TrEMBL record:
Annotated protein name in UniProt: HTH luxR-type domain-containing protein
Keywords from the UniProt entry: DNA-binding, Membrane, Transcription, Transcription regulation, Transmembrane, Transmembrane helix
SUPFAM superfamilies: C-terminal effector domain of the bipartite response regulators
Pfam families for the chain: GerE (PF00196)
Domain HTH luxR-type: 414-479
GO biological process, one term: regulation of DNA-templated transcription
GO function term, MF aspect, one: DNA binding
Organism: Adlercreutzia caecimuris B7
Keyword Ribonucleoprotein applies: no
């Protein structure tokens, strides 16, 4: 998918493809990487051998996260959105800080480790689910270009935090880790405050069918990742600090920053599949089924797909006004369950030795089948701006208003196809149809001064119109006072 295909001078500013403002990520939006760092330190990484881990805290943490995410999905109409509820931020921070304290206390009071592990996992799973939904809600307020820039930069920033934290002695590691949840949530509050009121999550509600195609796409990759996850933690890096994840995140960030809207996002998943093939077939032939090369490729591929699913889900919320709590709650819950199933499958094959020496290869081939199926699902879509099967269901007046927004987006997409508009021109067309000024369009799309005017001029030329009123007539819209 090409987010933008500018004219000769469009997308350039002082000789650069995008303005410096587009290259710089506001620090507040990097807080997503901060909570990722917390997860790796406390529950799924290789920093500290917490005595509390003698009980199955990882599984309990995951299932509590799933239950919380799906619970928020069921209650989304009544509890969302989160951005304007200080109580949610306070509850989330308190749960995560308490979870951190309990895990580290087990290092100094080993005799109480088993008693501390269970409440730590419960609090951690509950708090991290809320944090994930808060950040998902924030990213759903952004256009795809900003989502790609900020999300990929956050992944790299989180890894940097982890690399720095590796140098702390245990008391300092405890103190600094306890600060991470509050820091992440304060950054989220700051990021929400930086958005114009019109871009904040809608407080209206509409019933919406689940875009299962997108959910199952990520679930297939999560299953493949879960199959190999155990071996990936045997090295010095955890899932969020793995070199493969960092390299892919930086490549996506630099690609978007340097190419601007002309970056082809389909390259992300087109590169991810070969990485998986290398990780699961070619590398094992040389005896490194779960070696560093395979781990690098698999972590890179999974990171690429995480970026793609964030783009897909956030774009559905951004374009059609879907509740991020509802949509991401479903996706995160399903993803975590399927990843757990992958881990259990791999453990069963290894412990039961049902396939003998061929067990590792069988697991690798099973993972490969899963990710090939997932990529096939994605490649069947025309582009990443699709609705992915999500549609409005019957509802009240709020549903009617959001349905009209969806109909407008569908009408713009139809016009774009008929007149062969680029993907970025289609996005500008939709913003024009929403009565947004050129200045607002430039701010929302993070493009240089004059670029939006160039897009509008090209759109008018292709549609053979000259005024905004003619555009409204073409879209069968009533002008707004």
């Amino acid at each position: 998918m090409e987010i933008e295909r500018d004219g000769e001078e469009a997308g350039r500013h002082n000789g650069r493809r995008v303005p410096w403002s587009a290259l710089c990520v506001p620090v507040a939006f990097l807080g997503l990487g901060v909570y990722r760092a917390w997860i790796e330190i406390v529950f799924v990484g290789s920093f500290v051998g917490f005595p509390a881990s003698s009980v199955p805290v990882r599984d309990l943490f995951d299932w509590t996260m799933v239950a919380t995410a799906l619970g928020c999905t069921l209650l989304a109409r009544h509890i969302g959105p989160f951005f304007n509820k200080r109580s949610v931020f306070a509850l989330c921070a308190a749960a995560l800080i308490a979870s951190t304290v309990l895990m580290f206390v087990s290092c100094w009071h080993v005799e109480a480790a088993s008693a501390l592990g269970v409440p730590s996992a419960l609090l951690g799973g509950f708090g991290i689910a809320l944090a994930i939904l808060v950040w998902s809600e924030l990213y759903s307020c952004l256009n795809p270009l900003r989502v790609a820039l900020y999300y990929s930069a956050s992944i790299a920033a989180g890894a940097l935090v982890l690399y720095v934290y590796r140098g702390f002695m245990l008391p300092w590691l405890f103190a600094m880790t306890a600060l991470l949840p509050a820091a992440s949530l304060l950054m989220a509050r700051r990021a929400f405050a930086s958005l114009p009121a019109a871009e904040l999550p809608s407080t209206s509600w509409s019933r919406f069918s689940v875009p299962w195609k997108a959910v199952l796409f990520m679930a297939a990759y999560a299953f493949g990742y879960g199959l190999l996850e155990g071996g990936m933690y045997q090295g010095p890096f955890g899932p969020h600090s793995a070199p493969g994840a960092v390299v892919v995140a930086l490549l996506v960030y630099l690609g978007v920053a340097m190419r601007g809207g002309r970056f082809d996002f389909s390259l992300i998943y087109r590169v991810a599949l070969p990485l998986v093939v290398v990780a699961l077939t070619i590398v094992p032939l040389f005896g490194y089924v779960q070696g560093q090369a395979a781990n690098f490729c698999m972590s890179g591929a999974y990171t690429a797909q995480s970026i793609i699913i964030m783009l897909i889900m956030a774009n559905i919320c951004y374009r059609f006004g879907v509740s991020a709590i509802w949509l991401f709650g479903i996706e995160r819950g399903v993803r975590q369950v399927v990843m757990w199933l992958g881990r259990m499958t791999a453990d069963a094959v290894e412990s039961q030795e049902v396939l003998g020496a061929m067990g590792d290869m069988a697991v690798a081939l099973l993972a490969l089948v899963a990710v090939v199926a997932a990529t096939t699902i994605l490649l069947s879509e025309r582009d990443l701006t699709s609705r992915w099967g999500a549609n409005f269901l019957s509802g009240g007046t709020d549903s009617a208003a959001l349905a009209r927004k969806q109909e407008l987006a569908d009408r713009c997409a139809e016009i774009a196809r008929r007149y062969k508009l680029s993907a970025r021109e289609e996005e500008v067309l939709l913003l024009l149809a929403q009565h947004k000024t050129v200045g607002i369009i430039e701010r929302e799309l993070v493009i240089a001064n004059g670029t939006a005017k160039a897009h509008v001029r090209h759109i008018y030329q292709k549609l053979d119109i000259h005024t905004r009123q003619e555009l409204f007539d073409l879209l069968d819209m009533e002008p707004r006072d």
